[in-house]
Design a protein that fits this description.
361 residues; alpha+beta; 2 domains; nine-stranded antiparallel beta sheet; 20% helix; elongated
Length: 361
């Protein structure tokens, strides 16, 4: 190596070293490595069975889950149920966080770790606060982004910042909890066998009626009024409309009255599903305008009220079962309005023409 090249390389090395020193100096608090992996939230570890309230804060939502034992719900959703296992998994994940290494204490560098103010306009952070049933705060802070492969065995970590501490931390352990109330709710309302739907009827605001029927359980559904020269787009096109009852899960839920169904009569649909045992499920569905920014491929929001009853001609050998199921469903759905998942919204508002292949010329 000639002297000129050597001098150039040495100069670059000096610049790199100076840059590293300046970068470290900007962080006013020295890096701290925790040898014994102390808990990020020690009070929570000590009293995890006493938790009575969990508050989640993001830029879009602030909500509180309260309860004990098997009974948990979201206050802002009139106590709509949250699965016990969802709460349990959250508490175990937060309690399992162990501090590994101290990180930045400078507010202008929080965003890189997603431990900034969770209510900031562009924040990706998630704020948490956990309270015991006696009111004592067991832990509070900001949960930041995940660090993949913290250890060579594949275990990951999480950046966080505790309330009252400017220092952010890298912690051992991962947390996976929802940013919105709907991510916490028990979204499964009921599960029924769509092959046991005897008849369904979809009534459109403009008077069109779609009626599908099968003679025996499991048989293919036939829709009345299909012209002989027309065919379905797919072999099970008519059967798909009954899949609404297979596992009915909502996108969101609100206590009624939430939407003005009467004022939206021009976009109101009625979908009815009658089972062989006499159970009848009724969906009253309204279609709202698409929100600003939605693409032409997005479905409009659809809200529904759901009720169950027994058909007047219910068979005697199925009436008791149908009556019990209707009672269970009404206990869950009474007083609630559901934002439908896109597929269920489509299935409860389908037109015959939408199910048919193009007419041959």
């Amino acid at each position: 190596m000639n002297s000129r090249a050597f001098i150039g390389l040495a100069a670059l090395t000096v610049v790199a070293v100076i840059g590293a020193i300046v970068s470290l100096a900007r962080d006013s608090t020295p890096i701290t490595v925790v040898g014994d992996r102390e808990p990020a939230f020690p009070k929570l570890v000590e009293r995890i069975n006493d938790v009575g309230a969990i508050e989640i804060i993001t830029k879009d939502h602030r909500f509180t889950i309260t309860g004990e034992g098997d009974g948990w719900g979201i206050e802002e959703k009139n106590g709509y149920p949250v699965k016990r296992e969802t709460v349990r998994n959250f508490l175990l994940e937060i309690a399992s966080l162990r501090l590994v290494e101290g990180k930045t204490a400078l507010a202008d560098r929080y965003k890189h770790l997603q431990v900034e103010d969770p209510e900031g306009e562009d924040s990706e952070a998630r704020g948490i606060r956990l309270l015991a049933r006696d009111g004592e705060q067991l832990g509070a802070g900001v949960i930041g982004r995940r660090k993949f492969f913290l250890y060579v065995d594949g275990r990951g970590g999480t950046y966080l910042r505790r309330e009252g501490d400017k220092r952010s931390w890298l912690a051992e352990g991962e947390v996976n909890f929802g940013r919105a109330p709907a991510n916490w709710l028990d979204r499964n309302v009921f599960e029924l066998d769509p092959k046991l739907v005897k008849r369904y009827t979809l009534k459109h605001p403009d008077g069109e009626v779609v009626t599908g029927q099968r003679v025996t359980p499991g048989e293919k559904v036939e829709i009345a009024g299909i012209p002989e020269q027309r065919t379905y787009k797919t072999d099970n096109e008519a059967d798909r409309l009954a899949l609404v009852v297979e596992r009915f899960e909502f996108a969101d839920v609100e206590p009624g009255p939430h939407q003005d169904f009467d004022a939206l009569a021009d976009s109101r649909y009625f979908a009815e599903y009658e089972f062989f045992n006499g159970l009848v499920l009724k969906f009253e569905v309204i279609t709202l305008p698409k929100p600003d920014g939605a693409s032409r491929f997005d479905e409009p929001p659809r809200w529904a009220r759901v009720t169950a009853e027994i058909a007047t001609d219910a068979p005697e050998d199925g009436r008791a079962e149908a009556t019990q199921k209707a009672l269970e469903i009404n206990q869950k759905t009474k007083g609630w309005e559901y934002l439908l998942e896109e597929l269920d919204g489509l299935r409860t508002t389908k037109r015959v023409e939408d199910m048919l292949a193009p007419a041959k010329s």
